[in-house]
Fold this protein.
Amino acid sequence: MTQKAIEILSKDDDGFFLMVEGGRIDHACHIRCYENTTAETLAFDVAVKAALDYASLSNDTLVIVTADHEAGGLVLGAVDFYNYSAGDPVFASGLALSHGPGYNLTSTGMATHTAVDVPLMASGPGAEKFSRGRTDNTEIFYLMKEGMGL
Ligand SMILES: [Zn+2]
């Protein structure tokens, strides 16, 4: 879908803005499903690659990757909570822990959004403005606006 969107939008001589969301990652995190979280994250990775591949063809495309929030508190390599082997993924949100064997994590209820910092990565012209340590999420709008010359 990302490749097709780029193919269509890139025909505009004025340039384009495209937002691609891996929204199902959030849904999988809400139900604490490690398998779907992984699959949706890998699908999002393919979308990011399509954008980066297009950007590599010229020097005028800024690609930004971030998240609007974290959900569920997926922890990799967590300490053994309930007879877990070290390294098993565990969803942990506050005091509510989800546990079960291997990939088939058993939900103990819907996970919530957390206040955990999320990555902000950029590639292309102006990308250096996105890597200043911590950035307030509202600042991203202004950086994108500046990047588009608006
Ligand atoms: Zn959500």
About this structure: Helices lie at 2-9, 23-30, 34-55, 137-147. Residues 26, 30, 71, 113 surround zinc ion (CB under 6 Å). The two ends are 27 Å apart (CA to CA). Residues 2-147 form a domain with the Alkaline Phosphatase, subunit A fold (CATH 3.40.720.10).
